[in-house]
Amino acid sequence: MASNTGTMANLPRGIGICTTIPDIFYLPELIFGGLVWILVACTLVVPANPQAWVMFVSLFCFIMTFVWMVVFACDGHHNSSSWAAADFAYHGIAAFFYLSAAVTLAKVTLDYKDGPFTTNYKLDISAVVFSYVATLLYFIHTILSAIRWKSF
């Protein structure tokens, strides 16, 4: 029977979150998610409902990613594979949320390309690009977290 000792070698502790794969993606996720949040907050779109979803996703993912990073940095996780599974599940949900927000934001931006709010068009395009980058980062983190989870 295989020994289960040393399983925490796969989960980061302290400064290890800045040097291990997939945890090295925490900071870029925070940076690009924060940029989406700031750029969407700077724009004015008449149907606020799609933008509200984008703001919810960017704020939720920013706060949860920060909390998740702090939990790992402060060694708040326990010796079990459930933390690896929770890491995979969270990043999968975040990737799905960001993809839906990015598509929604792109649609709203294209709909108002020639509308009365063209002064914010460059900000909207930047927000769309950063939201797709954040989606990609969360997706890569999800795949690498799944690989780590399955290695337990």
From TrEMBL:
Keywords: Membrane, Transmembrane, Transmembrane helix. PROSITE patterns: MARVEL. GO terms for molecular function: structural constituent of myelin sheath. GO terms for biological process: myelination. Its main location: membrane. It is found in: Membrane. It holds the Pfam family MARVEL. One of its GO terms (cellular component) is membrane. It is a multi-pass membrane protein. Residues 17-150 form the MARVEL domain. The chain crosses the membrane at residues 24-46, 52-73, 85-105, 125-147. It comes from the Eukaryota. This is MARVEL domain-containing protein. It comes from Perca fluviatilis.
